[in-house]
Amino acid sequence: MLATQTINNDALWQEADADNRAAKPRSITRSFDSEIAAQTIRGFEYNPFTFRDQWRYLASMFYKAPQGTSLAYKRRYQDGRPDDDISAPEIHNTMLRLYGEALHPCIQEWAIHYIGTTAGVRFNPAIDDPFFAIEGTQFRNAYTPSGIAPSKLATERPPQWQKYLDRLMPRDQLALPHRTTPCYSRCSLRRWWPNAFNTPECHHCFAYSSEGSTEQAKAIGWIKY
User: Fold this and answer.
1) By the 8 A CB rule, do 58 and 114 touch?
2) Orientation of helix 88-99 relative to helix 48-61, angle to 10°
3) Which of 48, 64, 67, 91 suits a disulfide with 117, CB 3.0-4.6 Å?
4) Minimal CA–CA distance to 179: which of 192, 166, 169?
5) Where in 19-115 does DSSP place strands (E)?
6) CB–CB of 58/111 below 8 Å?
């Protein structure tokens, strides 16, 4: 009795319990306390934290959307794959497979009542949330955030890229800019670009040459701006 009283007085326990009470579907007319008490008598202990996790999963991974003149159940996935149609019985089965014996009987019974309704699908890349509201109307967000994140900042060019740049602008060879002092080819290109961008009224033309590895094939390219 003392242990139960200590848990019930815990602030986090009270917060989770309050969330569960507030989230009880309005379509369920029976009181939250009476339903929880009935399941406790049957031997299923009420844990507000797992109870909250279960209905939050339902609310975040399933939704209803217009399909013709009726509403269809939809199932979204955390890995970003396209949403699927799903039947109400399969929603109950999905929860049972995921949580097994830990699935609270009230959640199993009320599962489809926790699922929200949407007015359709819209693309909103400004947020990563799967759902968003416009003037109180909820939509499914078609935007999927990128699942690829750089592990570290790149500080060196890829070898193949550097090899190409070295052929285009050899590090040890001079360029002969028109009416200017000879300089390294890459320095010449750095000088030319600012000049081209700062004088958009002029038509600039830049020629470069590159040699093959055997020095037998030569190519001359023109960059016009």
Assistant:
1) yes
2) 140
3) 64
4) 192
5) 62-67, 70-75, 84-85
6) yes
